[in-house]
């Protein structure tokens, strides 16, 4: 059966990759990215699981007469943090898979 890949070896490599991916996902839960809006008035930290870990709001930006501005700043910082977290995960997965795109993972 010349030309056919060694299925045992292929399955072993797939299992090793699966184990490395599980470890990476655990590590990504501990890595964080930080984004801010309004010149640092609102700061958001997200982890590699794309969860928001913390939000800090400078008291100076809290204006009861302009709640919409604060909402916009929080929204901008959250979206930026999640975008950065997604990029971080993508880069880590690309390193792990050697650039091979795996549907549903990256």
Helix-strand makeup class: alpha+beta
Q: Rounded to an integer, what's the Rg over CA atoms?
A: 20 Å
Question: Percent of residues in helical segments?
Answer: 40-55%
Q: Specify the CATH architecture of the domain at 30-89.
A: 2-Layer Sandwich
Strand content: 15-25%
Summarize the helix and strand pattern as letters: HEEEH
CATH class category name of the domain at 30-89? Alpha Beta
Mean pLDDT: 87
Low-confidence stretches: none
Strand ordering within the main sheet: 1-2-3
How does the major sheet shape up?
3 strands, antiparallel
Label the overall shape.
Answer: rod-shaped
The number of distinct β-strands equals 3
Counting DSSP H or I runs of 4 or more residues, the number of helices is 2
- Head-to-tail CA distance between termini: 34 Å
The CATH topology label of the domain at 30-89 is Ybab, Chain: A
Which homologous superfamily in CATH is the superfamily of the domain at 30-89?
A: Nucleoid-associated protein YbaB-like domain
Q: In words, what does this structure look like?
A:
- The chain has 106 residues and is an alpha+beta fold.
- It has a domain at 30-89: Ybab, Chain: A, CATH 3.30.1310.10.
- The chain is built from two helices and three strands, in the order αβββα.
- It has helices at residues 7-28, 67-97, and strands at residues 32-37, 42-47, 52-57.
- It has a three-stranded antiparallel sheet.
- β2 and β3 form a beta hairpin.
- α1 runs antiparallel to α2 (67-97).
- It is rod-shaped and about 70 Å long.
- The protein starts with 6 loop residues before the first helix and ends in a 9-residue tail after the last helix.
- The model has no long low-confidence stretch (mean pLDDT 87).
